[in-house]
Amino acid sequence: MIILKxxxxxxxMRAAGRLAAGVLRALERAARPGVTTGELDRxxxxxxxxxxxLPSFKGYRGFPACxxxxxxxxxxxxxxxxxxxxxxxxxxxxxxxxLKGYHGDTALTVAVGGPPAGLAAALLETGRGALxxxxxxxxxxxxxxxxxxxxxxxxxxxxxxVVRDYAGHGIGQAMHEEPQVPNYGxxxxxxxxxxxxxxxxxxMVNAGTFEVECLEDGWxxxxxxxxxxVHFEHTVAITEDGPEILTAWxxxxxx
Length: 255
Ligand code: MG
Fold this sequence. Notes:
The chain has 255 residues and is an alpha+beta fold. It has helices at 7-30, 37-50, 118-136, 144-157; strands at 54-55, 67-71, 74-76, 90-99, 102-111, 161-162, 168-170, 177-181, 198-201, 204-206, 212-214, 221-223, 229-231, 234-239, 242-245.
């Protein structure tokens, strides 16, 4: 069952989304060469708690940290630790916050140590664009699979692939609600999109094969060919007027 949110609930989710976005932006700025992913995790935990929220990921099915920090060929669910960032790394950061009973979930990939070039630049631009295409299809009266179809078309037209084993999701009082939001497939299928639905849309775009596997730590998902991957995610409310990004960064705001 897809849980529709009231106007008031979406207002609360807007606050959770804003906090998550601000934390993610701070992590992006802090992700410099020499910094460890564990240090980024501690920064995130401090900012989340200062914001009056709890980290959604910590303890989720036993996940040991507040953020996911996935480097290069790691797609998602990397565990922060002692590894130091190096110039040229592609670091995917994923943040979830639980504020006043609701979750906000957002992710991005950052090029460590300066503007990316070549493959990394193309992959980043494609990941960002794929997310934007998916969000643009989060329209009332549309169908759920229109989102994934738009994501896949955009990424594959640029010579990249989209991960199929992991998907976006409904979000609200639970971090993962129905429906699953795949990043591929034909359009015009699945539930009709309605105002009040809130979805975490999160394409994972790979440089090579779409196939992934999980490492022995039980969490870290990597590309099977070990080529790099990027991940971009927003929490999006479907409104009468179209999609509203709840995790957008507001440069004029406090985050
Ligand atoms: Mg998510």
